[in-house]
């Protein structure tokens, strides 16, 4: 039975006052234009509680007990990759039968939501220390310092790459309608490599890299694309060049080339591609290119350059302005890692002492 509309306090007061005056249910209902059953329910509630208030409406009881919710939260906290089906099975083993939808509602009520896991480089202890050192050294740098940085990277663009994850709205039996499908070919249909750069003032040139890039090709790429981009973006004097620790970037000949051109490069920690804000622009580029649906590699190259030039300078400026958030996050993660390492080390020491004591 559906819930009925609650009557206002004024209407309930009138019903109770008329009942106190000796009127019957039918008379009160006729005068106020209410149902007899409504009048009776309000009077019975008044007689029981002696006050005219609306009691809370709890609705259906919760299927999962507080202990069950605690178990779910404990499992998800320890293993964030746990699926809803796994949680359904865990509760079933404990004697509670629920659906996956109920599990999802419970997790959302507890402040959690399902998100795609971020892909980050596999880090060793030396990489973590290097990233933390970089973050601590530059945490207090002003936005003006980051405005002077020209960020660069290389990225691979697949012909049928990001399209494979697109969703469509369709009817039940229209799965293979051509407009509801995405064409695929083996090995992604080919791909091209692009090298580009950007600063807080906008995007620089995007250059297609043909073949395998070595040190000589990289220095040619810098001369033909980096320097013109810096001039076009009006970087001015004292600007800083950022590139990762790829061997061709760190080659002695490359360092001498940069020194000869009076270009200062930013000391960058290893395995830190996820801390480079140009990764956000590369993702934006892939989304824009996917919407254009290129048909071949030449079309892909043309669309990539067109969409790269269309990226608004405001987006570039926001990425640079918010870069301090990345550094703050890195410091927090580094601190947690140090605490965890310290705890594990103390635990191993205690276990060793315990074993020695047992042997004695």
TrEMBL record:
Residues 149-300 form the Tc1-like transposase DDE domain. Coiled coil: none annotated. One of its GO terms (molecular function) is DNA binding. It comes from the Eukaryota. Residues 1-50 form the Sleeping Beauty transposase HTH domain. This is Transposase Tc1-like domain-containing protein. Residues 71-140 form the Transposase Tc1-like domain. One of its GO terms (biological process) is DNA transposition.
């Amino acid at each position: 039975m559906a819930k009925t509309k609650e009557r206002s306090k004024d209407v309930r007061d009138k019903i109770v006052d008329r009942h106190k005056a000796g009127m019957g249910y039918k008379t009160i209902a006729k005068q106020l234009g209410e149902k007899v059953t409504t009048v009776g329910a309000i009077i019975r509630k008044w007689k029981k509680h002696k006050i005219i208030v609306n009691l809370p409406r709890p609705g259906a009881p919760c299927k999962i007990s507080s202990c069950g919710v605690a178990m779910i939260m404990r499992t998800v906290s320890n293993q964030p990759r746990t699926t809803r089906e796994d949680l359904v099975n865990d509760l079933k083993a404990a004697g509670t039968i629920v659906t996956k939808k109920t599990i999802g509602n419970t997790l959302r009520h507890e402040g959690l939501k399902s998100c795609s896991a971020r892909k980050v480089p596999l880090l060793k202890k030396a990489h973590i220390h290097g990233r933390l050192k970089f973050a601590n050294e530059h945490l207090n740098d002003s936005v003006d310092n980051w405005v002077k940085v020209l960020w660069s990277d290389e990225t691979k663009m697949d012909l049928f790459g990001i399209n494979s994850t697109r969703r469509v709205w369709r009817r039940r039996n229209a799965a293979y309608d051509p407009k509801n499908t995405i064409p695929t070919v083996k090995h992604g249909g080919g791909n091209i490599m692009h090298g580009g750069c950007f600063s807080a003032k906008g995007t620089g040139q995007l250059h297609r890299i043909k073949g395998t890039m070595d040190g000589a090709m990289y220095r040619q790429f810098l001369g033909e694309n980096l320097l013109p981009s810096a001039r076009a973006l009006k970087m001015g004097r004292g600007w800083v060049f950022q590139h990762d620790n790829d061997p061709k970037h760190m080659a002695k000949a490359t360092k001498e080339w940069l020194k000869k051109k009076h270009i200062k490069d930013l000391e960058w920690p290893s395995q830190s591609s996820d801390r480079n804000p140009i990764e956000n622009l590369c993702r934006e580029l892939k989304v824009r290119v996917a919407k254009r649906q290129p048909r071949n590699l030449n079309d892909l190259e043309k669309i990539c350059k067109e969409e790269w030039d269309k990226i608004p300078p405001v987006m570039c400026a926001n990425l640079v302005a918010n870069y301090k958030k990345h550094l703050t996050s890195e410091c927090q993660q580094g601190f947690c890692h140090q605490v965890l390492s310290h705890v594990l080390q103390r635990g191993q020491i205690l276990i060793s002492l315990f074993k020695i004591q047992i042997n004695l």
